[in-house]
Write a structure and sequence with these properties.
267 residues; alpha/beta; Rossmann fold; 8 helices; 7 strands; globular
Amino acid sequence: MGLKVNNAVVTGACGGLGQALARELLGRGARVALVGLNPESLQALAVQAPGRCRVYRPDVTDAAAMGAMASDWMGAHGVPDLVIANAGVAGGFDTEQATDLPVMRRMLEINLLGVATTFHPFVRAMREAQRPTALVGVASIAGWRGLPGNGAYCASKAGLIAYLQSLRAELRPTAVRVHTVSPGYLRTPLTAGNRFAMPGLMEPQAAARALLAGVVAGREHVVLPRRLGWLAHGLNALPARWHDALLLRQPRKPRRGEPGATDIPGL
């Protein structure tokens, strides 16, 4: 029996991929827990399906707040079929700059610890439900190899990929499936300030549909778009010196405080 999504939890639902996922799921008739920090964006989504969604505004790194969210949602709507840990932040990083160290710490908290904190209150209930369910972590192609000027983000996503591999192995004997999603470049606020080439740039709604199709089909690793994954694998096959030389010619991702940098909650 395959995965049927009637009940879902989506973090980072305020914009970009998370908002597109929430809209797609609501459009398919699912009940959706909308988790994010922007109340206006979340309420605008909730209006789309009154009675089928609830708005929650915890910090995804706050275990107590995420546990309260999970208890409230499951008390009202039952055990979810799908939990998508999508909340994340991005930004340039320079190890030489002391002011960037808190950026790395916070990025690791949100992008890596935040996924485990999102999954934690649901795992036992989903395992005990003894029906197909899915945990989805949104990583990145940037987690496949470190990129100059992007050390904090790459480290957080590489760590996330390894964490999801571990969790997948642990849950193999159960009906809970763990999926790793590695997007390339999506047209979202996180990429709006990028000054470098973004091959394979996808619209969030197309990415959301492809993600859900991959998860329902049972693919453990979903790459968005697939062709960018092939390109990344090709580049990664180059000798390290050649690979680094190519990327060092590109402008770097804006650091916190620079034009085009995105906000990092909690800093």
